[in-house]
Write a structure and sequence with these properties.
single chain, alpha/beta, UDP-N-acetylmuramoyl-L-alanine:D-glutamate ligase, 4-stranded mixed beta sheet, 11 helices, 13 strands, globular, binds adenosine-5'-diphosphate, cytoplasm, metal-binding, Ribo/fructo_kinase, carbohydrate metabolism
Amino acid sequence: MAKKIVVIGSLNYDIILKIPRLPECGETLPADQAGFSAGGKGANQAVQAAKLGVETYMVGRVGKDAHGDALIESAQKYQVNTDYITRSEEVTGMGVVEALEDGSVFSCIVRGANFDVAKADIDRAEPVIREADLMILQMEIPQEINAYAIEKAEECGCRVLLNTAPSAPIEEEYLKKCAIIVANEVEAGFYLGENVDSVEKAIKGIKKLQNIYGNDIVITLGKEGSVVSDHGVVTFIPSRKVHAIETTGAGDSFIGGMGYALLKGESLTEACKFATGCSAITVSRMGAQDSMPTLQEVQNQ
Ligand code: ADP
């Protein structure tokens, strides 16, 4: 039987506006460029795993609106199984990103249907969770549903990877039940209560987190790379030197890539090296889901 990943999380309809500057109060400012991108951390991670050839199931919610149709179509285009995406009375989750010429980015998010994800959705997906080798979670659905999913995974014997994005307080009991925790430097700083803006600080911080939670941990550090604590052995994995064009989805591509390599039976450290190759390609192209590589592209790198 083929190995499976189940991703439980968010789907967002992202609108990206390129603007020369922020508008003044009361001003209507024309945008230089506008675009749509299928997003949401959950959907992005599912798409990356599916693009690498993993049988991937997405559990989440979108509204009964055209944005919801577009997100389901996009996931299906990349072979993500969408049978467990439920249509909700709420509007589809949305992101509005305003990108200025100097590279600064301002975003607002509408949680919408993502916050309607319910225990019933997890129960409905139980047959898939039972067969899955890895459950991937993020923090863009209600915390209590993540907690329920973690318990369900434990009951079904499914390993959990939790991406603590965006960071929010989580009960220690649930963090301890996750086999792997992946945080970027901001999120790691949140849980440690101290700054993690260098490789040295990440190495120190990851040891502290490992001592508290006991699980395997990864801290990603943007263009620097990542630090991995794999059964207590800490390794720094530098990023690939590429010309980065757009870094949206770098972390999601990394997690989808990790999922693929873990299912192949790689150690966490080796999985992160593979994931580093995936995100290097993602950042060197425009877009999020569209820019994520196929297996062949990673192998040809
Ligand atoms: P997030 O998107 O969650 O904030 P990061 O920005 O830490 O995640 O990026 C995740 C991974 O993507 C990094 O560990 C690194 O391997 C890769 N990456 C990110 N930015 C770059 C870049 N500019 N060049 C090469 N690789 C990058």
